[in-house]
Design goal:
With 496 residues, this protein is mainly beta. 5% of the residues lie in helices and 39% in strands. The structure holds 4-hydroxy-3-methoxybenzaldehyde and fe (iii) ion.
């Protein structure tokens, strides 16, 4: 291994592993229900080379695609790099050629104009294809059977947007994928492309609109009626970027906004509603229509959760001092001047999931990750913000009913995926990777831990895992994951 900086972006669960491998027949403690049949894909940043700059951040690390394949209670694991243009150019050179996160002015001149994306954020399944995505570029298609990269995906040349979100939303009834790309026309472009692909994966609509400022639009929401773009004051600035500085800076004094338009409408119908100042959110849980009202549930914080984005905005706020809540924004669209009404639904946290069937509709339950205030042991270092979550919450948004699953002391939990049960009245399962320190929690080598895949009853998280699948490895942190059932894999556009 070369010289990696010893910052939070390279230690703990961010320790570079740089290994492509596959393992069959993993050890299983407990029993995996036979109904769990398919693949859990995970996006894992893991740099193939030491970075060009000491202050490099985990968001800038090469994407790997990992897969747990589960069938008849047996599990295999595989992980490979996504062979982006950037990965292949650096592989050939044997070193990093691309510089700072989303700053092409810091690159080696030899790669000017080349695709900078590392496709490290979310595996997306739609229209029989698997994509690895990151919001700064287009997705890359990956073969779900071999994990080989097919190449950049542009909808047979139809997509105009240069970017593609890592958080598209799929309507469970129509099968359409609603998605967007911001900075659609290039660096710091205010244009956002709003797009729809039909259930077979054909691009059927792409419209561009301007956002009020150049914010990081990480996620969005659909309901049966609307497409909704909540945006927050973490902004890009071309002069700062040209000077070699960070892409994003958080502005505590500027408002948030919600852009809302009919989901099949024209972008000229977009209405912008001002929200609270200085707040931040990377992931919305879900949204739904309620008569003339619209509810949008968000993992909201009082400032930006990324240290380097706060720092760039001149803010000196410790990670532990960030406050937030699972928050509901309600907008009455029949009002003369629609406004945001805000209330708290649950404790602060992130990496929220709902089951696919309730996307854009009223939903009885959601799951997300949080910090257990009573945890025995400090959080495990690593992950995108430098400290990992240590508990899983299940919440019923209408009643506020909350239940929790803790990780073992000093352990880390990554975003779960939900698996549907064929049995009526059974709420299905969650799959989540748990990292457990091999030494005493909080002491010893932070890179020394064991990663397991846990199978959890989705409606009884407090009972802990019903099966633990041991990888025998220390896996690098995932960002997001996606469950793809066997019948979908069988209908893949690619064969193995
Ligand atoms: C996020 C993650 C990213 C990124 C921007 O979780 C935002 C938020 C893993 O990459 O580039
Ligand atoms: Fe995300």
């Amino acid at each position: 291994m070369g010289a990696f900086p010893q910052t939070i972006h390279f230690i703990g669960t961010n320790t570079p592993r740089q290994q492509e491998y596959s393992l069959d027949n993993l050890e299983v403690e407990g029993e995996i229900p036979a109904a769990i049949n398919g693949s859990f894909f995970r996006a894992v940043p893991d740099n193939a080379h030491p970075p060009m700059f000491e202050d490099d951040i985990a968001l800038n690390h090469d994407g790997m695609i990992a897969r747990f394949d589960i069938k008849d209670g047996k599990v295999s694991f595989a992980i490979r790099y996504v062979e982006t243009e950037r990965y292949l150019l650096e592989k050939e050179a044997g070193r990093a050629l691309f510089g700072r996160y989303r700053n092409p002015f810091t690159d080696d001149p030899s790669v000017k104009g080349k695709d900078r994306t590392v496709a490290n954020t979310t595996p997306v399944w739609h229209g029989g294809r698997l994509f690895m995505t990151k919001e700064d570029g287009r997705g890359y298609e990956v073969n779900p059977h071999t994990l080989e990269t097919r190449g950049r995906w542009d909808y047979e040349g139809k997509l105009r947007s240069e970017t593609f979100t890592a958080h598209p939303r799929i309507d469970p009834v129509t099968g359409e994928m609603f998605f967007f790309g911001y900075e659609a026309g290039g660096l710091c472009d205010l244009n956002v492309a709003y797009c729809i692909a039909d259930k077979d994966g054909n691009l059927v609509k792409e419209q561009w609109f301007e956002q009020p400022y150049c914010s990081t639009i990480h996620d969005f929401v659909i309901t049966e009626k609307y497409a909704i773009f909540p945006i927050f004051p973490t902004l890009a600035d071309l002069d700062r970027i040209k000077a070699g500085g960070p892409h994003w800076a958080h502005h505590q004094d500027l408002p948030s906004y919600v852009g809302i338009m009919p989901r099949y409408g024209d972008v000229s119908e977009m209405v912008w509603i001002e929200g609270p100042k200085g707040v931040s959110c990377f992931h919305e849980v879900n949204g739904y229509d309620d008569g003339d009202k619209v509810h949008i549930d968000l993992c909201l914080t009082d400032t930006c959760a990324f240290q380097f984005m706060r720092e760039a905005g001149g803010l000196d706020i410790d990670q532990r001092d960030i406050k937030g809540a699972l928050t509901r924004w309600t907008i009455d669209m029949s009002a003369h001047k629609p406004a945001i009404e805000q209330r708290e639904l649950g404790p602060t946290g992130d990496l929220c999931r709902v089951e696919d069937a309730v996307q854009g509709r009223p939903y009885p339950r959601a799951w997300y990750l949080s910090m257990n205030p009573q945890a025995k042991g400090p959080p495990m270092l690593g992950g995108p913000v430098g400290a990992n979550f240590n508990c899983l919450l299940r919440i019923e948004p209408e009643t506020g009913r909350l239940s929790m699953m803790e990780t073992p002391p000093g352990g880390a939990i990554s975003e779960p995926a939900h698996v549907v049960s064929p049995e009526a009245g059974h709420g299905g399962w969650l799959l989540s990777v748990i990292d457990i320190p091999n030494g005493p929690p909080g002491a010893g080598d932070p890179s020394d831990y064991s990663s397991e895949l846990w199978v959890i009853e989705a409606d009884a998280v407090e009972k802990g895992p019903i099966a633990r699948i041991k990888t025998g490895k220390a896996l690098r942190s995932q960002v997001h994951g996606t469950w793809v059932a066997r019948e979908k894999l069988a209908n893949s556009k690619l064969s193995g």
